[in-house]
Specification:
Strand content: 15-25%
CATH superfamily of the largest domain: von Willebrand factor, type A domain
Oligomer: single chain
Distance between the termini: 46 Å
Order of helices and strands: HHEEHEHEEHEEHHEHEHEH
Number of helices: 10
Helix content: 25-40%
Shape: elongated
Structural class: alpha/beta
Largest sheet: 6 strands, mixed
Number of strands: 10
């Protein structure tokens, strides 16, 4: 019985994942999921999926519709109130929140976008000692009691002794049924990674363009975290001057004024030199802009910084150009002209939210 329940639960999870994969482009083009992100879980609204649930015996338990009252009495509110609007004939749309781990979400994205696994730079000389739960024992402290295995042992005992009653399935574990988790210390190679998100917040970048960046960086961050459990994330904004901000400010800052892109690249280069030794870190800078820069002189300055100070030290440098009605869009052409043969320079033009999915595949499809 227990195995059958677990099998049904596994089947249901596969159905949910299939539905998410089927509608992945819709999820990627909206910010709906981003506000539902916790530390390790993401809640996704899934329409038209009925989740199995227990139903109480209506003869033995109270609940809605039980107790005193006559048919037709209002549950609450004004008893003389009238409903607003006309009656409809169509079925309503119902949805439930389905929780997935960040790793499960990354796996679905990888399958749909056909993303290769990232191959980190070799850092096997860095190692950490971690606790790994590796087995089950019949002795141990209560803090490590394994409830599921204890329940299974109690169920097997009751079935084998003929005590189990399928019509009244009450399972009461005894001391001999109790099982505990056991552990061992393991040494694991550690890979360090940092992602540096840079965004143009000058006057030509409107809220719509910033929302595109917000959504895309969420999915990039999700994918990288599935490969690097200790991923560091830094946020840099710039107009004519670059500065580091926290995540909330990065997505909400409203600025105006001109654009000097080299200010962001200088900041990024200094950050790498001072805090992230390329021999010990996997480094991923991402820059998002509408492609409008102050002058050709600054374009040349950007090319020099990228060529001599950034590209030699990073896994890949990704530039995403968000289409704007005010931006000139010329900067990506400068990058194409100067770095067309550089394998770790990856460029993407993001016309609107619908283009986010393809942009992510362009950035992450090389597995660097």
């Amino acid at each position: 019985m227990v195995e059958r329940i677990e099998k049904d639960l596994g089947r249901f999870k596969n159905i949910v994942k299939g539905k998410i994969r089927q509608n992945l482009k819709k999820y990627m083009s909206t910010g709906e999921m981003i506000g539902r992100k916790g530390k390790d879980l993401v809640s996704i609204p899934m329409p038209q999926i009925d989740i199995p649930h227990f139903r109480f015996d209506e003869k033995k338990n109270g609940g809605v519709g039980q107790g005193d009252g006559e048919v037709g009495d209002p549950v609450n509110g004004d008893p003389d109130g009238e409903g607003k609007g006309q009656a409809g004939e169509n079925e309503g749309q119902h949805s439930r929140e389905v929780e997935l781990t960040i790793d499960e979400l990354a796996e679905i994205m990888a399958q749909e976008l056909e993303l290769p696994n990232i191959k980190p730079k070799g850092k096997e000389n860095l190692a950490t000692e971690r606790t790994k739960y590796s087995g089950i024992s019949n002795i141990g402290p209560n803090s490590l009691r394994h409830f599921k295995r204890t329940y299974k042992e109690a169920l097997k005992r009751q079935i084998s002794t003929g005590v189990y009653n399928s019509k009244n399935p009450i399972i009461v574990p005894i001391k001999n049924d109790t099982r505990y988790r056991t552990w061992k210390e393991v040494v694991k190679p550690e890979t360090n990674a940092v992602v540096i998100f840079m965004m143009d917040v000058s006057g030509s970048m409107e809220d719509e363009q910033k929302e595109v960046v917000r959504i895309e960086t969420f999915w990039i961050d999700t994918w990288l975290r599935s490969h690097y459990k200790e991923l560091k994330t830094r946020y840099v904004v710039h107009d004519t001057v670059a500065k580091e901000v926290d995540r909330e400010t990065f997505f909400s800052l409203k600025e105006s004024g001109g654009t000097i892109i080299s200010s962001a690249y200088k900041f990024c280069s200094n950050l790498i030199n001072q805090q992230y030794n390329p021999d010990e870190w996997n480094i991923y800078p991402f820059h998002f802009s509408d492609g409008d820069n102050w002058s050709d002189k600054d374009n040349n300055e950007c090319m020099n910084i990228l060529k001599n100070e950034i590209l030699p030290h990073v896994n890949m440098f990704c530039y995403g150009q968000v289409e704007s009605r005010y931006g000139s869009g010329k900067f990506i052409k400068e990058l194409e002209k100067n770095f067309k043969d550089e394998e770790n320079m990856i460029l993407s033009e993001i016309e609107n939210k619908e283009a986010i999915m393809q942009s992510i595949k362009t950035f992450l499809g090389k597995g660097k």
